């Protein structure tokens, strides 16, 4: 059933630029001579290396384990030798991060420990979630959030609805579209495995209505399977339809509360590409060492979708798309709305990069000459905000650096979609400012937490020192009184006998 | 108007003034604002470095001194001008820069022990106001970076000067991010 309009507050239909690459077959990229695996694959948390420089690794060997719930395990995507573990240019916040570099030995040796899942129903769901964590499966929609962490939260809350996100609303990006067209069976198998992990009855695959081929491919696959638990929901192509909370609202009508998790609202959302990665892992034991990426923009000769190994330098992806052409102005990991500008094409592919956009000034349009002007309070930003915020008010709070107002106006509910600064006639980089403001709020919160911890430690120390002083005083008093008694006792009998 | 009426009026006014004065005086002595609350409010604005640069043995004693008007609000270099501003807003006083007599504001720092040179004398352990140094006599000492407040109090007792203060490691969250387009 098709909704007349999106159920979330606003959004905007944008030029998609997807036809450049969406219809072409996915190019299988050859293994590179070197891979650069960032410890932070895009979720903001670093994995912990378990190999040393000089270690021999095979394809699929674990090289870094997930130290916390937000990091993802990383596996060698080529066979060879670990040549460095060092700070490099990476597609992470700040532009640099610790990476594990592996030099290929030219072989395609596969780690002996890898084996396909015997039968997905044979594993109990908890064990399945644990194995998904070990396989490094993470959200391939662009956040690289560990799938196992989401599944655990969903299991805790007894979630009954699985939502597969095939909306792919970001302009330029079409890797999920290409994947759904070519590997619909993988998506469905992955959905089954995720359903087993959750014990959920219902699974809905949501796809935007501008992807008729993908919808047809999945419908054909479902028709073969004849499974009543799986269904397809066609949603309107409105940016940001594919944002987790917005998609949940469109499909289920549930609005995930501010600060709440989708799992608490009874829904779990996974990207279709993540489901396909789960299927690949189940079929041949392959951990998350590759993904489909869109390489596009007017700055490359032949835009296309490629399946590339994680860690492949982005330059190799651009070569696969025919190399640079014209005058590229920006290299962006992701689409033009939420993507991240990169300083170098030597950066290794991460699980979070769904698109490499080589943008020329024509693609960037007026933004390249953007000169910020004062806010004229037109309110266009509030009219498009899909989170129902008031960006104009938030902007004032940001300029005033007023943490209380920022929190009250919902700075933490901003999903960073970038629509407000896209429509801003004064060219104010609003989304960027809000991201910066949220970062400052987080830093302030962290500082407050560590101050509270320091205060508690100081108070415990004071207490301990007071107790020690009191105990010492008591010992001293006891010794003194004993000495006095001893003296009295000694003099008493002496008097008596003397 | 008769003189009696004037005397009565003045008398009534004087009696009222005396009665209200007595009542206010009693109230001021018996219903004083909760001292502990004010100290806690001030303490909450202090950075909890526990460095003693304010000449009080920790943040809470300094908060108590401010509350009892025994110290000014400009004595906290780790908190910097922002802390003075927050204190000024809370206490309704004019803000001012930190008094340089009590030290200068520095970027966030943590202590680091050169473990090669540490002789295991254990003298820095009691000096640390937040128990952030681990070690024992004749054993290597080390600083728990996450719990160190950078107060510098461990520096003077060290006989071999093997402790230095280093800037807090930069994490991604502190970076400025750049726009894509």
How is this structure best described in words?
Chain A is built from 14 helices and 17 strands. Chain A is of the alpha/beta class. Among the domains of chain A are: 207 residues, 3-Layer(aba) Sandwich (Rossmann fold), CATH 3.40.50.11540; 118 residues, Fumarate Reductase Iron-sulfur Protein, Chain B, domain 2. In chain A, helix 1 runs antiparallel to helix 2, helix 4 crosses helix 7 and helix 11 crosses helix 14. The C terminus of chain A is likely disordered. Chain B is mainly α and 181 residues long. In chain B, 35% of the residues lie in helices and 8% in strands. Chain B contains five helices and four strands, in the order ααααβαβββ. In chain B, the strands form two sheets. Chain B has a two-stranded antiparallel ribbon. In chain B, strands 2-3 form a two-stranded antiparallel sheet. Chain B is elongated and about 100 Å long. Chain B starts with a helix and ends in a 14-residue tail after the last strand. At the A-B interface, helix 14 of A face loops of B.
Summarize the structure.
The complex is a heterodimer of chains A (498) and B (181). Helices cover 37% and strands 18% of the residues of chain A.
């Amino acid at each position: 059933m098709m909704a007349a309009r999106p159920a979330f507050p606003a959004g905007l239909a944008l030029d998609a630029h997807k036809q450049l690459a969406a219809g072409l077959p996915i190019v299988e990229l050859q293994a590179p001579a070197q891979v650069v695996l960032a410890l932070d694959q895009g979720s903001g948390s670093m994995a912990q290396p378990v190999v040393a420089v000089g270690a021999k690794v095979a394809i699929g060997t674990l090289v870094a384990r997930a130290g916390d719930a937000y990091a993802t395990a990383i596996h060698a995507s080529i066979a060879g030798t670990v040549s460095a573990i060092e700070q490099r240019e990476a597609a992470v916040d700040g532009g640099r991060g610790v990476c594990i570099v592996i030099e290929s030995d030219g072989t395609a040796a596969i780690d002996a420990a890898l084996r396909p899942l015997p039968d997905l129903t044979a594993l109990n769901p908890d064990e399945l979630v644990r194995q998904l964590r070990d396989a490094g499966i993470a959200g391939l929609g662009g956040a690289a959030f560990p799938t196992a962490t989401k599944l655990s939260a969903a299991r805790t809350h007894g979630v009954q609805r699985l939502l597969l996100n095939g909306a792919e609303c970001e302009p330029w990006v079409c890797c999920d579209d290409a994947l759904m067209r070519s590997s619909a069976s993988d998506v469905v198998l992955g959905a089954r495995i995720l359903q087993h992990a959750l014990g959920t009855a219902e699974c809905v695959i949501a796809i935007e209505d501008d992807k008729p081929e993908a919808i047809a491919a999945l419908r054909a696959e479902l028709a073969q399977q004849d499974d009543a638990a799986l269904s397809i929901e066609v949603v309107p192509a409105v940016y940001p339809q594919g944002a987790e909370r917005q998609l949940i609202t469109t499909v289920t009508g549930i609005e995930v509360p501010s600060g709440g998790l989708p799992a608490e609202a009874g829904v779990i959302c996974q990207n279709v590409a993540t489901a396909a990665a789960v299927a690949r892992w189940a079929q041949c034991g392959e951990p998350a060492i590759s993904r489909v990426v869109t390489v596009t923009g007017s700055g490359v000769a032949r835009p296309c979708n490629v399946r590339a190994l994680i860690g492949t330098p982005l330059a190799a992806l651009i070569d696969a798309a025919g190399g640079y052409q014209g005058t590229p102005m920006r290299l962006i990991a992701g689409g033009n709305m939420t993507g991240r500008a990169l300083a170098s094409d030597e950066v290794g592919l991460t699980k979070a990069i769904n698109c490499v956009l080589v943008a020329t000034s024509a693609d960037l349009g007026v933004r390249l000459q953007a000169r910020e002007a004062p806010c004229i309070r037109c309110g266009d930003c509030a009219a498009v905000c899909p989170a129902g915020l008031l960006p104009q008010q938030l902007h004032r709070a940001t300029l005033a650096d007023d943490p209380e107002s920022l929190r009250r106006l919902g700075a933490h509910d901003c999903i960073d979609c970038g629509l407000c600064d896209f429509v801003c006639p004064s060219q104010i980089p609003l989304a960027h400012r809000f991201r910066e403001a949220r970062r400052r709020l987080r830093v302030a919160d962290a500082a407050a937490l560590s101050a509270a911890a320091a205060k508690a430690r100081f108070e415990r120390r004071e207490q301990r020192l007071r107790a020690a002083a009191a105990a010492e005083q008591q010992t001293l008093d006891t010794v003194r009184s004993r000495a006095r008694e001893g003296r009295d006792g000694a003099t008493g009998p002496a008097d008596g006998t003397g | 108007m008769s003189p009696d009426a004037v005397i009565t009026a003045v008398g009534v006014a004087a009696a009222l003034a005396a009665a209200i004065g007595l009542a206010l005086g009693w109230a001021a002595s018996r219903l004083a604002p909760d001292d502990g609350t004010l100290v806690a409010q001030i303490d909450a604005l202090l950075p909890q470095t526990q460095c003693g640069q304010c000449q009080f043995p920790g943040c809470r004693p300094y908060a108590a001194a401010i509350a009892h008007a025994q110290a000014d609000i400009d004595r906290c270099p780790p908190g910097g001008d922002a802390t003075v501003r927050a204190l000024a807003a809370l206490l309704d006083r004019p803000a001012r820069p930190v008094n340089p007599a009590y030290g200068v504001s520095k970027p966030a720092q943590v202590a680091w022990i050169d473990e090669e040179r540490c002789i295991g004398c254990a003298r820095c352990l009691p000096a640390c106001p937040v128990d952030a140094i681990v070690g024992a006599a004749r054993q290597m000492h080390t600083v728990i970076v996450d719990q160190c407040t950078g107060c510098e109090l461990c520096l003077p007792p060290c006989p071999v000067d093997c402790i230095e203060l280093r800037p807090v490691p930069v994490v991604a969250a502190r970076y400025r991010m750049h726009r894509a387009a």
